[in-house]
Specification:
The protein is of the alpha+beta class. The chain has one domain. Helix content is about 55%, strand content about 20%. The chain is built from 6 helices and 4 strands, in the order H-H-H-E-H-E-E-H-H-E. A 4-stranded antiparallel sheet has the order 1-4-3-2, with helices on both faces. Helix 2 runs antiparallel to helix 3 and helix 3 packs across helix 6. The longest helix has about 35 residues. It is globular, with a radius of gyration of 21 Å.
């Protein structure tokens, strides 16, 4: 009886499809997408609290001081490097690397061709820094909430706070639905 069970198990393992690189891309994309959504939800939650407590000036403080902590916490918990980047930077340390820049430009082209920013994402293995790693990006559409600090018309106190914290700020002039930037994730 035991031999039949072992034979059936051996046959089942021979018949099972081997994992492919495509399966690994899908699994990693799913994990990265979940991490990006979790990071985004935590960030939006903090922004909404700050807006309710003190308006856009308090929300600027969230992006300046709390967002990096959320990214670090999620990165450690998920075993990934999680961050944000954009073509129009507010925070210079979030500047896109060469791969991220290509993806952001591709996202802009895809958006111009009619794709919605919320649907824009990519996940792929790349060779970088002498090693193979998995890279993922998910577009961040500009929501109404974002326009308080990223729109074309800002309150004077918002402009003053932005100039204080980000003297080289280029992250204004957006409209709802524009591509604000992207969540970017690297997995080893």
């Amino acid at each position: 009886m035991r031999h039949r069970w072992l034979a059936a198990l051996a046959l089942a393992s021979l018949c099972a499809a081997p994992a492919t690189a495509q399966d690994d891309v899908k699994a990693r994309t799913d994990a990265a997408r979940a991490a990006a959504l979790e990071f985004g939800a935590a960030l939006i939650g903090e922004l909404q609290k700050a807006m309710a407590a003190g308006g856009p000036v308090d929300a600027i403080a969230v992006c300046n001081t709390i967002a990096p902590g959320i990214a670090a916490e999620k990165s450690a918990a998920k075993g990934m490097t999680i961050g944000r980047t954009s073509l129009k930077l507010r925070q210079p340390k979030n500047a896109p690397d060469a791969w991220e820049l290509r993806q952001l430009l591709s996202f802009e082209q895809r958006r111009a061709a009619g794709e919605t920013p919320a649907s824009l994402e990519i996940g792929e293995f790349v060779d970088g820094n002498g090693k193979r790693e998995f890279r993922y990006m998910k577009a961040i559409p500009t929501a109404e909430l974002c326009l308080n600090c990223h729109g074309s018309t800002l309150k004077p106190e918002v402009t003053a706070k932005l100039q204080e914290l980000y003297p080289g700020d280029a992250a204004t002039g957006y409209k709802a639905g524009d591509l604000r930037g992207a969540f970017t994730i690297t997995q080893q």
